[in-house]
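Ticket #4471: structure output looks truncated?

Reporter: J.K.
Steps to reproduce: submitted the chain below (363 residues) through the standard prediction queue, then opened the result file.
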Amino acid sequence: MNQILMIIMAAGAVVGGFDRIRGNRWGYGAKFEEGFQLLGSTALSMAGMICLAPVLADVLGKAVVPFYRMIGVDPGMFGSLLAIDMGGYQLAKELAVDAQIGSYAGIVAASIFGCTVVFTIPVGMGMIREEDRRCFARGIMLGLVTMPVGLIVGGVLAGLSVPVCIWQNIPVLVLAALLLLGLWKIPESMIRGFCVFAKGIRFIITIGLVLGAVEYLCGIQLVRGMTPLTEAMEVVAGIGIVMLGSLPVTEFLQRLLKKPFEILGRKVGINAAGMTGLLVGAVSVIPALSMYQEMDDKGKVVNAAFLVSAASMLAAHIGFTFGTQPQLLGALIGAKISGAAAAVAAVFMIEIAFRKGNGYTIT
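Returned output as attached by the reporter:
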């Protein structure tokens, strides 16, 4: 399966590169260029955290490892609190006692829960209009409720048993429950808290990038134990190479599925922007959120729920996994697709239940 996926990505890169040479006649050349141009923003968002991951693991390990061991959870699961490409993977691998669980935490759990906490929620709350935040929060809540589906499917595909997978995710599920409670009871305070948290993560990433640059340029290691910036950039480069092919492939899928999506959208009551946002969100969160105000209310809830699990699956996350743990590509994709499908299904089931009950809808 991994080889088939990479062949498809390679074919996308070939078509995109060929079209770029021909002057972007088909539109795939522009996507090929976009994949490479995303290297800068990708590096800014993750290289500094990769540099600092060993240091953070050493510092946090003194508190995290004893606590996680006390409750019978591998300390590597702590890495799932950060996004897969923002230090979550490196932190999970550094802290893990069991390498298999560390890989699962850093690839599968970090790509779902970590990405939602560190990236999707703070970026979404900052980008969308205030009047759309209610729909966004509801969607995120439904995505968190159905998140265990993706975590368990991904765990099984990664070689873990269902009971082990559930137990190892106890801290994640507890935090998810607290997030649900906060988004339900004190949404405005949660929004402010997420924005502060996002700024804190950005500060740490920037510090790591600066320290890595000083070490590379001057040979002075200001903080011992850091990963060299050149090694961090190798990870970023791997993601960029995959995106050279994944973005043209996604463009092809968008064109192929445009008519079926429009027909499906009319049947389920979601406008064209809402249906398109699902496919765009599987590539990148930001473009999907930029379309948010064009969606109808039902589409806004569905897209937010979908993003909890599916965010960046077809670009950054698949690229990161291929560059670090290619054997877990199936687990990553299976987890994100199943979790996203469960979230979307939950939106429709709840809407149907309310409609039959008292006339209210999910929005």
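Triage note (M.O.): checked the attachment and the full token line is present. Residues 28-357 form one domain.
Status: closed, working as intended.
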